[in-house]
Design a protein that fits this description.
This protein is an alpha/beta fold and 516 residues long. The chain has three domains: 185 residues, 3-Layer(aba) Sandwich (Rossmann fold); 72 residues; 162 residues, no CATH class. The chain is built from 18 helices and 15 strands. The strands form four sheets. A six-stranded mixed β-sheet has the order 10-11-12-13-15-14, sandwiched between helices. α7 packs parallel to α9. The longest helix is centred in the first third of the chain and has 19 residues.
Length: 516
């Protein structure tokens, strides 16, 4: 059976296209040789489990170690019950070790152990009986919380001085977060905020994304197996859209090779890549869905909301900025400032936030279409003004991010307009004080800039025209919309201030100015 691009669970070389998993963790083997304890934290579906399974297999095959990966997920329901957590962990671990290891390397019986130190006792018994030093990789460590988490970390620390003959030589904790962000209800915080229960760790490592050459190498495996060619421009576009995020790279390839162009005689083109991107964004697969779920967390919202609004970040703790990077939501832009991690995520986040406003929309007749089904921007303008006058301000309450509530309601309306017949692209970033939208429908391209007029600030018209001029130039368009949301205190009622007018940029581009 031919191999395929994997988007669920660990990769296996016999079944899936995959890159050498340890290339992105170059320090790890050295840390193990130095008998260190370490943390590996990285976003979901970036390749942590694949890398750890491969590492364990490689170490055991070397003849120097007994290495295995186990999971902490079985103890998730026992955050306040140390006894229950220990039993759940050890039962799950013995099952896993029976599967991964030959009989001579498996641990002895763990049934007669003392509550509160079962983990330490079990690992000591195993290390004393095992003919080789043990490397234990504990996946899904984030599943542990509160008392159970503290107990496990302290038991690992307690056994550390006895390594390698009386305790595992090396232990790795694998999860989404670094130690400081492990979940615990203590001291008025929902995070550990310290590494002290596991202060024996030498390093916290993360797994980087693929680089552009690695994306090409992965896709070349498919070409070698099937003969199907990825045009160089298509591979380059995949990297630009994903910034090498492994799940996205595989998800696009799977959509391309199995759905859009299943015939290996068909060459994959950039146009196909764009189509695949739209499909996986609309489909909201588990990876994107779990990412979007993070937007509900207060510390995430405190960063993402001003980014979407184009504002500077407020007094955000350093660890929260690091946290959104650890989750893979954001990255530090080489040109400066925090940015959404890749263009696909940049599309997903506002789309997710418009779900509730979209569900709250009234029925709207598509009066913006001509009799031949083409988009008429003049009709669209009239339909939008009527919609906002009747429903706009009432719908602001349905938006979960108040700072950008008008943006979200407008985007919800525009999603109703395109409704599968077009696309809506977004550009936003810290400090730009705007959001740019590009509505594409058939041959029509409409560039829209959103600005907010805030209390004690000047009218954003002049700055908005200047900024929109640059955006229209990139779109190669001669006209567009500038939407100004008046969010000042004590403004006139909407029906008295809503208006449209025509303005020109410095270079003579015609702009429809919409004041709401």
């Amino acid at each position: 059976m031919p191999r395929w691009f994997n988007t669920a669970g660990p990769c296996r070389l016999s079944k899936h296209y995959m890159l050498p998993p340890l290339v992105r963790l170059p320090k790890l083997v050295r840390l193990i040789e130095q008998e260190t304890y370490f943390v590996i934290h990285a976003p979901r579906q970036i390749g942590k489990t694949t890398a750890m399974l491969s590492l364990a297999e490689q170490l055991t095959a070397s003849g120097k170690y007994v290495a295995a990966m186990v999971s902490a997920e079985a103890a998730q329901a026992y955050s306040q019950d140390i006894n229950g957590a220990e039993l759940a962990l050890l039962n799950a671990w013995q099952t896993a070790l029976r599967y991964w290891l030959p009989p001579e390397f498996r641990p002895p019986d763990w049934s007669q152990l003392t509550t509160g130190s079962r983990i330490s006792q079990a690992l000591s018994l195993w290390a004393e009986a095992c003919p080789r030093p043990i490397v234990l990789l504990i996946d899904e460590i984030d599943a542990l919380r509160d008392d159970a988490l503290i107990s496990v970390l302290r038991q690992l620390r307690d056994g550390y001085p006895r390594r390698p003959n009386g305790f595992p030589s090396s232990v790795g904790l694998i999860g989404l977060r670094d130690v400081r962000d492990y979940k615990i209800a203590a001291g008025g915080s929902d995070r550990l905020n310290t590494a002290s229960p596991f202060n024996i760790k030498v390093e916290s490592l993360t797994i980087r994304n693929f680089n552009e050459l690695e994306v090409a190498e992965l896709y070349q495996q498919h070409t070698a197996d099937t003969g199907q060619i990825f045009a160089p421009a298509a591979t380059q576009l995949v990297f630009e859209l994903t910034q090498g995020q492994p799940w996205l790279v595989n998800a696009l390839a799977r959509q391309l090779t199995e759905e859009i162009a299943p015939d290996p005689e068909i060459t994959i083109t950039p146009t196909m890549v764009e189509a695949a991107k739209e499909i996986i964004i609309r489909r909201q697969d588990t990876h994107l869905d779990s990412l979007a779920e993070r937007l509900r967390e207060k510390r995430i919202k405190a960063i993402i909301e001003p980014m979407l609004a184009g504002l500077e970040l407020g007094d955000i703790p350093n660890e929260d900025i690091q946290f959104v990077q650890d989750l893979g939501l954001c990255r530090m832009d080489p040109l400066g400032g925090l940015a959404i991690a890749n263009p696909i995520y940049r599309e997903v986040l506002p789309r997710v936030l418009t779900v509730t406003p979209m569900a709250s929309l009234p029925q709207i007749q598509p009066t913006w279409l001509t009799t031949t089904g083409e988009l008429d921007t003049e009709r669209l303008l009239h339909a939008f003004m009527d919609f906002w006058l009747q429903h706009g301000e009432a719908l602001l309450k349905s938006a979960s991010y108040p700072e950008i509530a008008p943006h979200l309601v407008l985007m919800a309306f525009l999603h109703r307009v395109i409704n599968g017949g077009g696309t809506l692209e977004r550009e936003y970033a810290i400090g730009r004080d705007r959001m740019d939208l590009c509505l594409r429908y058939g041959s029509i391209i409409l560039g829209i800039e959103l600005k907010v007029w805030r209390t004690s600030r000047p009218d954003p018209l002049t700055k908005g025209l200047e900024q929109l001029e640059g955006y229209l130039a990139r779109l190669k368009q001669s006209s567009g919309w500038l939407v100004i949301f008046d969010r000042r205190t004590n403004v006139l009622p909407l029906e008295e201030r809503i208006e449209t007018s025509i303005a020109k940029t410095a270079n003579g581009q015609q702009v429809t100015v919409i004041r709401l």
